[in-house]
Amino acid sequence: MPAVKEKHTIKDYKLLPAGAPYQLIEGELVMTPSPTTFHQIISANLFKAIAKFVDGKKTGIALYSPIDVYLGDENALQPDIVFISKQLQEIIEDDGIHGAPDMIIEILSPSTAYYDIKKKYKIYEKSGVKEYWIVDPEMKSVELFTLAEQGKFILSAGFTDQGTVKSGILAGFEINLEEIFLA
Q: Three-state DSSP class for 137?
């Protein structure tokens, strides 16, 4: 008889030691090893640009990983970067973000790409994240997905090697691919 995988909840997740390298994805505890140096450079480049823009416009708050984003009882995710508008500030609590941020950015790593592209994509879509960026360090590409009225993500822009990514959520924010992948 095949073994049945145990489903975990946020209650179980919160029993883990602080800083444990796990995310809870659809009830599965998934180990997420430390990212590469290039991943962190990309994350820093994006975060600095977004935080500067958000702070200047006073439109909300940008945060970076590790920060727990709780979406339902079986999902405690740690996106690389999140933006939460002033209108949604009530979802920010001491232990993390309880609800869908306006924008999430995930930077792919070999060990987590499957989750970012497949499982987390669906969770973010179902939870109502308005804008989702998937950044691929290897391909030096960015895919920007926007939540359509039907509650499904549509690919609103895709860039490889060059071009300017413009956010629909952060009106007026744009960043060149060269700035994102500048090492």
A: coil
* Residue where the block lists tokens 């405690």: 76
Nearest to residue 131, comparing CAs of 152, 103, 106? 103
CB 62 within 8 A of CB 47: yes
Closest CA to 176 of 102, 161, 134: 161
The phi-psi region of residue 48 (left if phi > 0; otherwise alpha if psi is between -120 and 50; otherwise beta) is: alpha
Q: Would you kindly state where each structural domain of the chain is located, as residue ranges?
A: 34-180
The rounded distance, in Å, linking the Cα atoms of 19 and 102 is 25
Q: Is 145 helix (H, G, I), strand (E, B) or coil?
A: strand
Q: What single-letter DSSP state applies at residue 177?
A: H
Instruction: Please state, as a whole number, how many other Cβ atoms lie within 10 Å of the Cβ of residue 24.
Output: 26
Parallel, antiparallel or unpaired: strands 131-136 and 141-147? antiparallel
Domain 34-180 sits in which CATH superfamily? tt1808, chain A (3.90.1570.10)
Residues 29-87 have pLDDT tens digits of: 999 888 999 999 999 999 999 999 999 999 999 999 999 999 999 999 999 999 999 99
Q: pTM score, two decimals?
A: 0.94
Q: What is the model's pLDDT at position 3?
A: 59
DSSP 87: G
